Amino acid sequence: MKIQDYIESNYTIMLGKPVIKGTRISVELILKKLSEGVSKTQLIEMYPSLTNDHINACLSYASDVISNELILQD
User: Fold this and answer.
1) Whole-number Å distance between alpha carbons of 68 and 63
2) How far apart are alpha carbons 36 and 10 in whole angstroms?
3) CB contact set of 32 (below 8 Å; sequence gap of 6+)
4) For the whole model, what pTM was predicted?
5) How far apart, in whole angstroms, are the C-alpha atoms of residue 26 and residue 61?
6) What H or E segment, with its residue span, contains residue 18?
7) Residue ranges per domain, the chain?
8) Where residue 15 falls among pLDDT bands split at 50, 70, 90?
9) Which among 15, 7, 8 has a CA at the least distance from the CA of 57?
10) What SS3 state is found at 7?
């Protein structure tokens, strides 16, 4: 799966927050809903333009961001 096929970041859309391509549904929103216990099926019902691939791309995006995060220690 290529994340770039599903997620874009464009300053003119939501001030550059990563969103599902062609929508204003942010990766942040999807991750927040999943963390609150909303299932993939429920997300798709809430946002009919979403697919399982979109949600999986958000999870992959979050994983990539975290894997490249630097931890600062004193």
Assistant:
1) 9
2) 27
3) none
4) 0.87
5) 12
6) none
7) 3-66
8) very high
9) 7
10) strand
